[in-house]
Amino acid sequence: MDIIFIDDLRVSTLIGIYPREKAMPQTVEMSLQIGTSTASAGTSDEISDTIDYAAVVDRLRSELATQHFNLLEKLAEYVATLLLTEFGATWVRVSIAKLGMMRGVRRVGVVIERSRPA
Questions:
Q1: Residue 74 a catalytic site member
Q2: Which of 112, 66, 59, 111 is nearest to 82 (CA)?
Q3: Under a CB-based contact definition with an 8 Å cutoff, are residues 72 and 96 in contact?
């Protein structure tokens, strides 16, 4: 399996359980590893034969701009499911972090791995 990766993507979304978090979008940082075969694209040199990382970024930015999630875990599941079902990934690792949420802590977050059902 090959991996397409997107590191340190910053996206604005409503995330959190506190009233201020439900009212004001926050920037979250996410890194994605997307498992797929890139053999066809390596032969054809055509974007249609792989997962277009620009399309992934555009889709995530537009989707997350209109959503609210209480927990980072739910957001990570949402992203993983989107990559598996709509972009055809066979496996994903999704890392999502809130920035500067706690005094003396740079980032807090979650990392999940999911695979498409066999």
A1: no
A2: 59
A3: yes
C-alpha closest to that of 94 among 44, 48, 69: 69
Among 98, 106, 109, 114, the one annotated catalytic = 98
The pLDDT tens digits for 34-93 are: 999 999 999 999 999 999 999 999 999 999 999 999 999 999 999 999 999 999 999 999
Domain count, the chain: 1
Domain span at residue 63? 2-115
Measured between its terminal Cα atoms, the distance across the chain in Å is: 15
- Is the pTM above the cut of 0.90? yes
CATH code for position 44: 3.30.1130.10
